[in-house]
Write a structure and sequence with these properties.
- Chains A, B, C, D, E, F, G, H: This is YtoQ family protein.
- The structure is a homooctamer.
- By secondary structure, the first copy, chain A, is an alpha/beta fold.
- The first copy, chain A, has a domain of about 100 residues: Rossmann fold.
- The first copy, chain A, contains 6 helices and 5 strands.
- In chain A, strands 2-1-3-4-5 form a 5-stranded parallel β-sheet, sandwiched between helices.
- In chain A, helix 2 packs across helix 3.
- The longest helix of chain A is centred in the middle third of the chain and has 22 residues.
- The radius of gyration of chain A is 16 Å and the shape is globular.
- Chain A starts with a strand and ends in a 5-residue tail after the last helix.
- At the A-B interface, helix 3, helix 4 and helix 5 of A face helix 3, helix 4 and helix 5 of B.
């Protein structure tokens, strides 16, 4: 059984394409809370409002860390997706965190980001551009079967 | 003695302001190669040219990793600077790497980046906006002396 | 599945409020023996009486350590409750022990203790004042659902 | 050479009695910043004021953690002193932190605290009541010489 | 669930007394091969005879190490029994091995051995003289119930 | 339950002889993808063709590493088979990798290779020449039963 | 530079023969307190008398552990000497402790003890019978020079 | 300062070319005993002759392991050279051992070995064919200076 953590971009359907594509394989997927509003406001919603946006964000980011750290630490494979928009520093942070723990990293991004992500890619065991390639990797790793 | 690794932005003088400011303190500083061209091309310059830019970058990023991993792994404090430009995913990657190793993280960035860096800041023991604050932190940690 | 260790105060019903509130969530709870008399006397009851109260206490504390260390080491989240009475040094000890192991710490205490607990709180990912907030944290971490 | 971290009470001269008594031995001592005001206010003094006392304390406690974690992690022996006053939860936290790292713990307290500290004492290799006993321990460990 | 490794003496019925006494508790027991002849000769029986008794013993001891290391490394509690006869250096070796791994140690021996075992006992969380006490410890650790 | 990773030679039936022989024992076996062509080409088949054979090989070897590292890291026993042909440096690499992780190593090779493999054998708990001996080892380790 | 811990027997001159023989080599030696009386009574001499011999021994053994654990944990090579007399369970305990930490073990004993020490020897990289052989090992490891 | 371990081939002058080329750089080099005869016979020369070549080899390989493990474990960079002759399984074993410890690996071999070494190369941060390239890597990593 392979435990896979899906980190990064939350505005496209890449997670669904992977989990759907991997149906039938012996894989369990985990990942962050992908509801953007809930993720941003969880801290103050549970632990009380903050006047200062900095501490509003801090409370939320630390609650989310309970989930993301467990997910990464228990994963065999950490897939990190970089989309076309936003800074996505949390995705790169997760990649570094996973790399230091010796996890098998798979980085998923379009060719435009290749140079900017070269240090991240260099720590990975695979660099893919499409979610379907991640599914093929998981199938091969588990069953030895190649596409086509 | 405090070993401090200075990660991130290479286009402003923040490293000099810290190392100069910390003169007289019992600190040793390390950091990446900050010559942009050398850092980009080191791999092919030493190990042979590549037709494909992707592998050109890979060779360089992996050589640089010999230096950066040693620097981070031996550091007591890892300072990560996010500047105003570029993606800076390697900086966020370093922060995640250092966090997973349990290093004391200090993040240095302007207020505009606060929300985008909230997960990175949440893993840090200090968030500063000016290099001089980092010097004050190092002085306080080593000597118990506060500014002013 | 989330493994949660509930450390600290044994004289109020905070553990029951959390375990009851978390019914239906994929959580397992562990914690110390909360029968005060049994906890104090277990060592001599099993291993033989001691004239000196110091060794009476030692024998008991070491037996209890078999349970508490396993609980903390296997936990994903360690919740430490500080009540209004007593020294509660064992609670702070557990918090430090959990922090050094990299566990996700949640500290639970009333506002009066905030200054005295600042070092403990600073190692935590959440500081709550009511057990129901801990339930909300667990629900959010597992399901992404916020209260209200 | 023995590296000794002196944690806990900051209102009596116990650190001086130990460091003075250990003169001539191959020991280096480290410890927290013992200037109470500086320790409380370091965060806001360097990183900016906070309206909320909770975050005022948080900023300071996290700066102090840079120093205390390094001190404990590099120590061979961690001595934790519990005085007659205050909650001293940070001392118990340090003891738990050191215990989880497998450090040799020496606990220093008067007989009145014995029962309340039984879990902390049970994790220690020595429990002393006077700083001079700590000096004798260090001398014995380094040279095999007993007092008298 | 508690995983308990039973190390040491193989010529009395102490393992049976513990496993029988612990029936109904959520414990799994492991231990070395207790068939003395098989344990001594397993190496040469499987891997071929040796002229030299030293290598005959080596082959067997290394095969047995596959089992004993796994048992100790996966255990929560390691019970080490010292009987009245023989050198039993392998028992003391197992105790040291378990101690270095941070396992909860319970040492079981008669009062005559107390002084000779003082370093081993000093690394343990409990020192018992009868197998029934070990059962009581396991019951207390799992259920909080004391005997009588 | 014993988790056994079978590393090395892929051109004879030694894996089948072990897994078949171990039927009825509480063992789970893992190993690399043994389809030579799939193993060589998996990288380019999934992630895109490479002009340079060096990077063709790199992509494949890194995908295979996702599987082999997980297999070795989760194993209790790592069996490494050296056949009569080829360099088999990946087998020796796996042995070194497993040794550094403290795994129980069993090396399987004919007598001709003994001198060349002396450093590898010296890190092992058993050196066998026939797959059936490995089955006997597994049976003995799990049940204490010797052959014959 | 090689750090060598000399554990075990304290009634013959084997430590002197090794340290004298190794003069001129880049080695530092550490070991336990070898003054038998001081070692037995250190606990009560510093921390106060005990009526019960068991706790008298406990206090001493734990003080000695401060020294022995540091010595073993910082050593590259741990030499454990078993003499002709006494139970020497502390020596076997040290050997197990060192083995679990992955130290290079050298066991030193006469041929009569070979069978009883087979599990200890099986964890070692060398088994010698004379202190001079240990000197030769240290010289070879450091300089590549063989005797004669 | 960079600690570099030079593993592998002992029949050409590659180590000399690297150590000579690196003069003036802040590097310390370690490596195995490269006197082939001494390396093969050290075990029996010190610990006594063996009739069986297998144990003759075992004794030697284990003595050599004292030196090689220390060298690899303390290194920042492990360079592994594969020459044109011999099986060189010990070199691949060292590479695997270093990889599992997270060392920065540099592999040095001619193009003919590329396919057979693909799993080893895939674990490395650089693959070079000439010793002078290793010198250039060390100079770049330490000083940021590129050749030419």
């Amino acid at each position: 059984m392979l435990r896979v953590y899906l980190s990064g971009e939350i505005h496209t359907d890449w997670r669904e394409r992977i989990t759907k594509g991997a149906e039938g394989l012996d894989v369990t997927f985990t990942g962050p809370v992908t509801d953007h509003a809930a993720s941003d406001d969880c801290g103050v919603a549970i632990l009380g409002a903050e006047d200062d946006k900095f501490w509003h964000d801090r409370k939320g980011a630390q609650l989310n860390a309970i989930r993301t750290r467990k997910g990464i630490e228990e994963a065999d494979v950490v897939v990190v997706r970089f989309g076309d928009q936003y800074k996505q520093w949390n995705a790169a942070f997760d990649a570094g965190y996973a790399a230091a723990l010796g996890k098998s990293l798979v980085i998923l991004h379009g060719p435009d980001h290749a140079h900017a992500l070269k240090e991240v890619d260099a720590a990975a065991l695979a660099v893919a551009s499409e979610p379907e390639q991640v599914v093929q990797i998981l199938r091969y790793v588990l069953t030895g079967t190649l596409p086509g």
